[in-house]
Amino acid sequence: MMNETLRKMKESGAADGIGSAIIEDVNDPGGLFASMFTTGPSPMGAHGAKEISLDLIDPWRDAEHDAQPFKPYSAEKLAELAENIRQNGVISPVRLRLSPFEKGRYQILAGHNRVAASKLAGRKTIPAILMQATDDEAKLILIDSNLYQRDHLLPSEKAWAYKMRLDTIKQQGKRTDLTSVQLAPKLSTEQIGEESGISKDQVKRFVRLTYLIPPLLDMVDVESIPFTAGVSVSFLPPDAQQLLLTVMRNNDVKSITRSQGEELKAFKSQLDEETILRIFGKSPKAHTVKPQIIKLQVDYSPAITRRLAKDETLQARIRAVIDAYIKETAK
């Protein structure tokens, strides 16, 4: 069944590159707008896009000021895209909506890297399709355009994307029970899993990663912590995760194995430094020995004994004599 966006495009002639420009009306985010996911020039044709000043375009954020979960291209990849834009222009228009926060400005729904690369390439404007979308629809466009178009996504990006998608579906009144085993109606985790080619249980595992504190989630991204170990560690409360991170840094522990992750999870809030070190096969560092007071009987005047108690140089010399004597007699 043709979604409403495609119907309007067809009726206006924009789908064939003729007719007047239209603003896409997004009311079927689940079908996710076939016009967004074709390669090459926009299916709306040259008349479907308009040039928008880059100075008027802002990154996506929601009402809670949360930024998008997808990380920008590396400097090298962004420079490569910028050079391509210098030579060929922006082939696929970005998707924008009017900013809900500031009149006269636009918010990116799809195309954050193309906007950044265009600025790097020295362009002043970028071809854009303007879309009418509610906050929830805008969030789904942002998520799906990255989930299903990018060649590679980090575990953290998938984790936050799936969580945002689940939260958005929940706000729309659909089921998001992460523990239910009922088959009907279809769970949102099952729906997302089918769209992504993974199981609903794997979707749940990705969502669990969002419970990791940022430094540990970064370690999952660089594979210092395997995915399964990261899921296990995510069940620790934040203070236990922070303790784990501190102990790892102080004892030069670079990674967590799957079995170590499962063992850490079993302790949860009862986790302490000694237990963490045992799990990693480390011995607690020897504590600094507290100085012991030794009383010596000396036949000196009170003035000299008072000096002995305060004169650090004299005390050091006495210790040196004692150490030398102990070393000599130990032979």
Q: Mind explaining what this structure looks like?
A:
- The chain is of the alpha/beta class.
- The protein folds into four domains: 4-148, Conserved hypothetical protein from pyrococcus furiosus pfu- 392566-001, ParB domain; 153-211, no CATH class; 220-279, no CATH class; 293-331.
- The chain contains 14 helices and six strands.
- It has helices spanning 4-12, 75-88, 112-120, 135-147, 155-171, 188-196, 200-208, 214-221, 227-233, 238-250, 258-267, 273-279, 302-310, 312-329, and strands at residues 24-25, 50-53, 57-58, 94-98, 106-110, 125-132.
- Strands 1, 2, 3, 4, 5 and 6 form a six-stranded mixed β-sheet that branches.
- A hairpin with a 7-residue loop joins strand 4 and strand 5 (106-110).
- Helix 4 packs antiparallel against helix 5 (155-171), helix 5 (155-171) crosses helix 7 (200-208) and helix 9 runs parallel beside helix 11.
- It is elongated, with a radius of gyration of 31 Å.
Number of strands: 6
The CATH architecture name of the largest domain reads: Alpha-Beta Complex
Indicate the percent of residues in helices.
40-55%
Described by strand count, sense and barrel closure, the largest sheet is: 6 strands, mixed
Q: From the 3D structure, determine the CATH topology of the largest domain.
A: Conserved hypothetical protein from pyrococcus furiosus pfu- 392566-001, ParB domain
Question: What is the typical, i.e. mean, pLDDT?
Answer: 76
**First-residue to last-residue Cα separation:** 94 Å
CATH class of the largest domain: Alpha Beta
Order of helices and strands: HEEEHEEHEHHHHHHHHHHH
